[in-house]
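Narrative of activities, Objective 1.

The group set out to show that a structural description can be obtained from nothing but a protein's sequence at a throughput compatible with the screening campaign. Below is one input-output pair from the validation batch, recorded exactly as produced.
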Amino acid sequence: MGKFEVVPLAVYGTNAVGVYVFANNEYALIPQDAPQRLIQGVRDALSVEVIQVTIAKSPLIGIFVAGNDNGILLPSIVTDDELQRIRLGTRKDLNVEVVPSKYTALSNLVLTNNKVSLVSSIMEAELLRSISNVLGTEVVSGDLCGSYIVGSIVIINDNGALMTPDASDEDVKKVKDLFKIKVNVGTINRGIGFVRSGAVANNRGAIVGGSTTGFEIMRLIETLG
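Output recorded for this entry:
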């Protein structure tokens, strides 16, 4: 395993970099008008091909999109043009599918790596099988830390998971047992527990908000590297 690369940056004047970017181990979806330093930061940290898009004509890709190396889940509000752009920009055998849910902030509701997916209890039960097919993993329905936004309070890859400090020992054990990876608690951007809002990670590295401290970065490397 090489070095786990972490690149701190701010985007559009905010440290909430996680709301603008989705990444797996091959591709990153970033806003159409992304500044060069975001494109470069994503390439440097994650070693992925960058695809510039919008979702529902919005730059908030990191909120609307969830996925792993097997598939990408898009919200029902994605336009046909956007869907085509993502399909054309990715390999043919990557599942790129729209989730016909009334909920559109899929990143908040789906916590996934290449092994397992935890899907929020509020997601319509009849969609779980198709989500499982797209992601190529077992899907478990449930919540974490007394919250249904399971994807917003954990940053995960195939090596580990960094959870909000609000996580109880029971929450930590739940993630550890389900994903069979190491789990730590920590923050991003100088104390923010909604860790996914301030970071995007894959198995090679992460981008984090510019106000993330050295200690927070070390914790992330130790957990996901």
